[in-house]
Amino acid sequence: MALVLLGGVVAYSVLDGERLDQVVLGLGAAGVSVALVSLAARRQVLYGLGLTLVGAAYAVYLALLPGTVDDGAPFVATLLFLAAELGFWSLERHDARPEPAVLVRRLVALAAAASGTAIVGTVLLVAVSGTEGGVVLEALGVAAAVMVVAVATALTWRAGRPQSSPSASARSPQA
């Protein structure tokens, strides 16, 4: 799935571009190819390089845009975020099958983070383009701010929570 998402970024950049499509396609194809090799060889460093090359292809596309802002940037950011998360997730060491509840929690968190990426990207796009969005845009901005605070709070709470092991609580204190 990560490779499909990376391919989507490359396809968008090539199909929407007006100049030097071969350069954008070459960089993007190289990035997807490196990502494919990294997944097959289970090498995280190579996957990061593949992501970088796909991002570079998009950057070349942006540099060649006749306008100042790409309306598809939030979409591209979301695709790159999902491709990175799914790719590195597949490269993690898995000693056992995850429990269904853990898998569902992780997928829900990934969907929420991807939605947050799209919302924040859209708000930033509208902010830099000077477009007025009215109440809907303001609601999206508030939702994005709430989401950022919620994620920061959850991460802070999780980091501050003491880790307990079942074996430590089963031991009796020695006198």
How are helices and strands ordered from N to C? HHHHHHH
Number of domains: 2
The rounded distance between the terminal residues' Cα atoms is 57 Å
Number of β-strand runs: 0
> Tally the helices: what do you get?
7
Largest sheet: none
Itemize the secondary structure elements and their pairings.
Blueprint: H1 2-16, H2 21-41, H3 44-63, H4 73-91, H5 100-129, H6 134-160, H7 166-170
Kindly summarize this structure in a few lines:
By secondary structure, the chain is mainly alpha-helical. It has helices at residues 2-16, 21-41, 44-63, 73-91, 100-129, 134-160, 166-170. The chain folds into two domains: 1-92; 99-161.
Can you offer a commentary on this structure?
The structure is a single chain. This protein has 175 residues and is mostly helical. The protein folds into 2 domains: 1-92; 99-161. The chain is 78% helix and 0% strand. The protein starts with a helix and ends in a 5-residue tail after the last helix. Mean pLDDT is 76; it is low at 163-172.
Task: Based on the model shown, name its key terms.
7 helices, 175 residues, 2 domains, mainly alpha, 0% strand, 78% helix
